[in-house]
Amino acid sequence: MGLAMAAVGLIGAGISAYGAYEQGQATSAAEAYQAQVAANNAVIAEQNARLDIQAGETAATNQGLKTRAQVGTEKAGQGAGGIDPNTGSAVAVRAGTEEIGYLDSMTIRSNAAKSAYGQLVTATSDTAQSRLASAESSQAATAGDIGAAGSLLSGIGTVGGRYAAFQNANPGSSLNQFNFTP
Predict the structure, then answer these.
(1) For residue 86, what is the DSSP state?
(2) 51-107: per-residue pLDDT in tens?
(3) How far apart are CA 32 and CA 131, in angstroms?
(4) Counting Cβ atoms within 10 Å, is residue 71 exposed (0-12), middle (13-18) or buried (19+)?
(5) Are 48 and 129 in contact (CB under 8 A)?
(6) 182: Cβ–Cβ under 8 A, 6 or more apart, which residues?
(7) Local structure of residue 175 (DSSP, 8 states)
(8) How many other CB atoms are there within 10 angstroms of residue 79's CB atom?
(9) 3-state class of 95 per DSSP?
(10) Got the DSSP string for 53-81?
(11) Phi, psi of 87 (to 5 degrees)
(12) CA 112 – CA 57 distance, rounded (Å)
């Protein structure tokens, strides 16, 4: 009976150790996956930052073209209205239009830069998250190995202690009666 209980205890310790090992491996795999997702997100955020800047430059260029067209339309209208477009308030009106157009272009660039900065902050955060998840993955695998070894040693210790208690309670019973030699 004592030998059977010892065997069952050892099997239980082995199963517990295997469970701890598998849990560590599963946690490690999940963290490795999260690390890769975060790394991919960082790459996407960096690409989005570059695209924001490009889109901002394109929009600013388009705004500059619209402003020049508007200034040309104003000058033509001034000339058609009998006003000398090269003197006085006619020049000042067109200069104001140019300044407003320039300000619009700068606002577009500024908004694009702010958007790109937000994307770069996200990329930095995702990169840090990727590194953290990678470290957690490595630590989870190690923890699983240590947990498995601890479960196995604890189980063996428990089985040994129970067997010793059984031997003390049943002094005539021994492994030797089954022709085992320790």
Answers:
(1) T
(2) 999 999 999 999 999 999 999 999 999 999 999 999 999 999 999 999 999 999 999
(3) 10
(4) middle
(5) no
(6) 175, 176
(7) G
(8) 13
(9) helix
(10) HHHHHHHHHHHHHHHHHHHHHHHHHHHHT
(11) -140, 160
(12) 8
**Whole-structure pTM value:** 0.68
The contacts of residue 85 (CB under 8 Å, 6+ apart) are 75, 78, 79, 91, 94
Tell which wins on pLDDT, 102 or 21: 102
Q: Which of the four pLDDT bands, split at 50, 70 and 90, describes residue 182?
A: very low
Q: What is the DSSP letter of 165?
A: H
Any idea which residue has 């604890």 for tokens? 154
Assign 17 a pLDDT band (cuts: 50, 70, 90). Answer: confident
- Condensed to tens digits (0 to 9), the pLDDT of residues 126-171 reads 999 999 999 888 888 888 888 888 888 888 888 777 777 777 777 6
Give the end-to-end CA distance of the chain in Å, rounded to a whole number.
18
d(CA 181, CA 178): 9
Strand blocks (E) in 6-72: none
